[in-house]
Amino acid sequence: MAPPGQMAVFPSRNRLLIGSWLTSVRTRFDMTLLLILLLPILFLPAPLVLRHAPRAAVVSALLAPAIIFYLLLQLLPAVLAGQVLLFHYDWIPALGLAVSLRLDALAALFALLISGIGISVIFYAHHYFAGKPDAPRFFAMILGFMMAMLGIVLSENLLFMLVFWEMTSLISFLLIGFYGQKQISRRGARLSLFITGGGGLALLAAILLMGSIVGSFQLSDILAERALLQQHSVFPWILGLFLVGVFTKSAQFPFHLWLPHAMSAPTPVSAYLHSATMVKAGIFLMMRLYPVFSGAEVWFYWVVAIGFMTLLVGSFVAIFMHDMKGLLAYSTISHLGLITLLLGYGSEAALTVAVFHLINHALFKAPLFMMAGSIDKAAGTRDLRQINGLAWHYPWLAVLSFIPTAAMAGLPYLNGYFSKKLFIVESFQSTDSGWLAVLIPALAILGAAFSVGYAIRLFHNTFFNGKPRDIPNWPLPAISGWVYLPLACFAALCLWIGFWPEVLLHQLVQPVVQAAQGNVALTTDFSPYDLAILQQHPWLTTISMLTFAGGLAVYSARKALFAWHAALPTVDAKDIFESRMQWLIARSQQGVHLVENGSLQRYVIYLVLTALVFTSWPLWQLQQWRGELALMPVDAMSAGALILLMVMAISVAVLHRQRLIALLFTGATGLLITVGFARFSAPDLALTQFSVEVMAIFIMMLALSFLPQSSPQEKVRYRAKRDAVVATVAGIGVAVLSFAVMTRPQQSISDYFLANSVPGGGGSNVVNVILVDFRGFDTLGEIAVLAIAALAVFALTRNLRLKGHSPSAEHIDAWHGYAQPYPLILRTLARPLLPMALLVSAYIFLRGHNLPGGGFIAGLITAAALSLQYVACGIRWAQVRMLTQFRPLIGAGLLIAGLTGLGSLLFDHPFLTSWFSYFELPVIGKFELATALLFDLGVYATVVGSTMLILANMGRLMTIHGPGKEIG
C-alpha cells in the first residue's frame, strides 16, 4: 500500500511489464513513467537512419525530449501536491533488483532540467554541426545519455539506478572523446572515465552496504531506516564511500580535475553534460539520500569542507583561465562546490537555497557554453587574449550573453542575485561554534568575490577590451540567427526569476525541498522572497556591494595577478594522470610477460595446474573417495575397447610429426568419445559431439594451411615428459573428482525436468526441452556469445594480411582456382551430399523436441555440409555459388530467438515461456505445434551463420596466402 497522500501504481507481481500494459491499464500513470524513461532510446536510431536529411534528423532527435517535457508537465501538478508516482516490476527478485521508478517533486525537477535543456542543446547542436556529418552520431549519443540521466533521477531501486549511473560514465566517455582523432579528446575522455568510473565502484560498495543493513535496495525502505543506518558501526564507511562516489561525478575537490579536461568535447556536450546533467547527478543523489545522511556530524564537516575547497579552488583558478570553456569549467566546479556545501549545512533553509541555486546555475551556465561554442566556431579560437571587442561584430550575442553572465556574477534583479544572497545568509547561520562562525562566512564572501571577478573577465575580455588579436578566421563570419533563439530563452528565464523569484520558490522549490526531506512538512517560508530577506538582514546590501567591489578589484589587478600566477610552477593533472597510466601499463606488461610468452602449451598448463591446486585440497580432506551409491553395471568389453582405441589414437596424435595425420587421429579420439556416448545412453550428447568434432576438424584443417606440414622436433625432451605428467595427473584428478561426486547422493532438479518435460514443455526429449524452454534464457545467452565470438573473428581477420610466404597469383590460382586441384572423388561426392545433408539437418531439427536432435545439432550438420563444399571444391568456387554474407543470418537468428521470448510477455507469461498444442489434420493425423520450434530456429540460424562466418574468413585468408611452406 502507498503511504497516505501518495499514489502507487504497481503491476501485479505475477504480471510482467508488457502484459500489464496491454491487459491492466488502471490509470493514466501506469506506463507514463516507463515511457518517459524509454523514449530517448526509442528515438535513438532515428537520427542515424535520417543522417542524409539533416532537418529530419534534428526533428527526430527533438521529439523525445519534447514529448518527455510535455508528459512531465502533465504530471507536475500531482507531484507538486505531494503525490509520489511509482512503477514497479520485479526484475531479479533474488538479488533485490527491480525495474522500479519513482516520480516525486525532486525527480520531476531534475527530469524537467534534463529534457528541457536537452531540447535547447539539440536545437543548438543542429546549427553548431551545420555542414558536418557528425550531427546524427551526436544526436544518438546525446539521446542515450539523456536516457541514462533520466534513469538515475527516476529510479526507486538503487541497484537499478547504478546501471544508469555507469551508463552516464560510459556515454560521457564517448561524448568527451567525440573527436577521437584528436589526442587531447582521447586523453580527456580517458581521465573522465577513470575518475568517474572509480567513483562508481565506491558508490556501488556504499549501496550494497546500505542494502545489506536495511534488507532492501528500494529507496523508500532505505529512507525509512535513517536511525538504523546512522547507528550502525559501518555508517562512517558507508558515508565515506558514498561521498567518494558522488564527489567524483560532481567534480568536487580533489576529483574535479576531469571536468576542465573534458572541455575538449564539442560545445553542445559541455552545455548539456557539464552544466545541467552529468555534473548534477552527484548533487541529485546527495539530495535523494539527504534524509539518511544529513544531521550526522561527520556529514557536516566533510561535506562543508569539501564544498568550500571546491568553491574556492574553482573560482580562484577560473580567474586565470585564458580558454573560455576552461573558465566556464572551473566556474561550474565553483558553483557545484557552493551547492555541495549548502547541502552540508544540513538545515532546511540551506537545502532550499541549494535547490534554488541548482536551477539558477543550469539556466545561466548552459547559454554561456553556447556563447563560447558560437564564438569558437566563428573565430576559430576560444582564447580570451585574442577574442576581444566582439560586441561590435556580434551585438546581439553580446546582449544575450550579458544577462547570464551578470546572473552568474549575482547582479540585482537576476536569478543568481537571490541565490547568492541566501548563500551568504546561510553561511552566517550555519554554525555558532567559535572560529567556524567567522571562517565560514569569510570564505563564502571570498568565493563570491572571485565569482564576480571571473564573470567580469569573461564578458569584458570577450566583447570589449580593445580589438581582436590574431583571429584565425578573419574577417569574422556571421553567426546563424537561429543560435540566438536558445540564448534568448535562457536570458528571459534569468530575468523572469530575477523579477519574480517568489513564484519559482513557492511553486517549485519548496515542494522539491519537501520531497528531498522525505515529504516532511516545511518549517521555513521565504515568501515574499526579497522583502523578507532585506527586512531580516539589512546588512546584506553592504556585503553584496563588498563582493562586487572585491570582484572589480580582482579584475582590475589582473595583469599583476597573471604575472604572479605565471611565475608559479605549472602542474597539469592530465599529464600526471597519463604518466601514471603509462607507468601502470608498463608494470602490467612486465607482469604479463612473466606468464605470457605466446605458447599455447604454457597457457593450458597454467589453467590445468590451477584447477588441480583448487580441487586437490578438498579431495584430500575426504576420508573416502567413494560415496554410498552403488555403481551401475558397466559393459567392460565396450569400455575397455574404447579406452584402448582412444589411447592408441592419442599416442599417434602426440608422437606423429605430420600435422595432418596428428589432426586426423585427434578427430578420431573425439569420434570414439561419440561412440561412448551413444553406447552408454546419451544420444543427444553423441549427436552434438559428432557434429562439433566434424566442424572442429574443418576449422583446424583450414588452420593447418598456414603451418608447415610437419611439426618441429622437440628440442627439450623434459617438456614432453612434463606435459605427459601434467596431462596424466589432470586426467586422474578429473576422474577421481567425478567418481567422488557421482557416487554420493545429492539433491537434483533432474526429477523435476523429467516429470514436467511433456506436460510443461510439450516434448519428450528432456534435453531439448531444457534448452529451449526451462533454461531457454541460458541458451539465448550462449548463442549470443557464439555470435559475438564469430563477429570477433570476422573483425580480426577482415583486413588481416599475414606476413611471410606470399605466393604468386599463378600459384594461388593453381592452388585454389579453377584448375581443379581437388580430389575428383571428393568433388563428385560433395555436391550430391549437400541436399542429402540438408534433408538430414531438417529431419534432426524438426524431431528435436521429442527425439534426439534440435536446432544446435541441425545447425552444425548444415554448416558441415556447406563446409564440405569449401574443402572439396575450393573457396572461390563455393563463394561464387552460395551465400557469403553470414552476418545477417546471425542477426536474424538472434532476432527470432529474442522475439520468441518477448512474444510470451504479450500473453502475461514470463519471458521465453513456450506454448504448445496438438492438432488433427487429414491424412497426417495428430501433430504438435510449439513456439519452441521458433526459438530453435533462431538457434539453428545463429549456429549456421556463426560457424560459416568463421570458416569463410579463415578460407579467405587461405585463398590470399596459399598453403604453408614446409620448413626443410
TrEMBL record:
Subcellular location as annotated: Cell membrane; Membrane
Residue ranges of domain Na+/H+ antiporter MnhB subunit-related protein in the record: 825-948
Signal sequence, start to end: none
Membrane topology (UniProt): Multi-pass membrane protein
Keywords: Antiport, Cell membrane, Ion transport, Membrane, Transmembrane, Transmembrane helix, Transport
Main location: membrane
Pfam families assigned: MbhD, MbhE, MnhB, Proton_antipo_M, Proton_antipo_N
Example GO biological process: monoatomic ion transport
Protein name per its UniProtKB record: Multicomponent K+:H+ antiporter subunit A
